[in-house]
Description:
The protein has helices spanning 17-29, 72-85, 93-98, 101-110, 133-140, 146-153, 176-184, 224-227, 237-254, 284-287, 291-307, 319-325, 331-345, 348-358, 362-369, 373-386, 392-408, and strands at residues 3-11, 33-35, 38-46, 62-65, 88-90, 118-121, 157-161, 171-173, 191-195, 202-209, 212-217, 258-266, 269-274. It has 412 residues and is of the alpha+beta class. Among the domains are: 3-98, Rossmann fold (3-Layer(aba) Sandwich), CATH 3.40.50; 100-116 and 207-278 and 318-342, no CATH class; 118-195, Dna Ligase, domain 1, CATH 3.30.1490. Helix 1 packs across helix 15 (362-369) and helix 16 (373-386) packs across helix 17 (392-408).
Amino acid sequence: MAELTRRIGLSLGADICWPLCFEHLMKRLNLRVPHQGDTLRFEVERVAIQPFNLKEPVGYDVVVDRLTHWMHSQREWIKKGIVMDGLYVFNNPWSVQSNEKHTTYAAMTKLGMPIPETWMLPAKQYSEDQVDARVTLKRYARLFDLGKIGERLGWPFFLKPYDGGGWRNVTRVKTAKEAWAAYDESGKSVMHAQASVEGYDAFVRTIGFGPQTRHVSYAPDAPLHDRYTQKVDFLPKAEAEHLRKVTLTINAFFGWDFNSCEALRRNGTWHPIDFANPCPDSQVTSLHFHFPWMVKSYLRWTVFCAATKRPMRKTLDWEPFYQVAALDLPYAEKLDRYARLADERFETAKFDEFCATHLKHLDAEASEFFATSEAKEAVRQKVAALFPAHEVEQFTELFWKRIQAWRAAGCP
Length: 412
């Protein structure tokens, strides 16, 4: 029997709190996992940004990626690791690079999800250095009436960039005048005009991490630190299961190990409205009560993928989903079949068995850890990075109190 080491790389940007907690928990667990006659140990290392040789192995079994959506050198390093070294990465970098919110709306509409009606608008402005832009627009661009599009969509509607990100330039417009004003301010962004789900009675953000999901009641108009509410068990079981299936379908379809899906409920129907978030917020300053769940989810899925040498699906393979979409079935039955495909791709049954066997002590260790000075220091460091100095103590205590409420609630 040999002792083998699985190496986990954390490819990080501005992340502070969750990596510190992840590293502390891994040390506390001190895992020794029996596997095919050997014993697996795990090392965690933060990935450096540096030149790399295409022929030099990346040296990791799994990389948790928080950078490829904007750091191009790391994106190419990760892509090289997948195609040459058998690296497993969260998330598929080609999918992150190519599938904007526009593609996700189109694909999930094709699968039958009740996505709000959406139009794409040409950009208001173009760069002077775009070759042949002027002659192309003169020949082929057509004048359009944004007010008439609004009449088709219904007032109010939302104008927002087709590629999204952090609620930037999202505007709810109630009249043609407001629509044109928002469009005139959109600059070079290609914009969506999307119908508003008026009269909704619930807003949920479902976080998906591998086959793990967590439903959070979301308050979009609250300050950032209060948008994720602390409600638990607020959904009927059938609706919670419905949103689990929606989220896992989206994530499996696009090759995203972790992502978040926003949905609005109106008249009993859940409308997914924003679900191309394959680098979802993982910070204690917004998640607070839900932050320990996120850290545990990072750990479970990372250790499972590393231990089992989970192979990276290099191609997305949408055809099985489209075959279901083509069937003459009600949407609920199609969603059941999509979810089964997702569970197969995420190896849900195998993952659950692995966690029950090798990570059964994680909940207790996490509960103990999130009462320690090390955990509180991770919270403080993140708060200090974002908040003015005179507010650091106040918000550190606020978020720490919410984490202790999570512990008191039995670590849900």
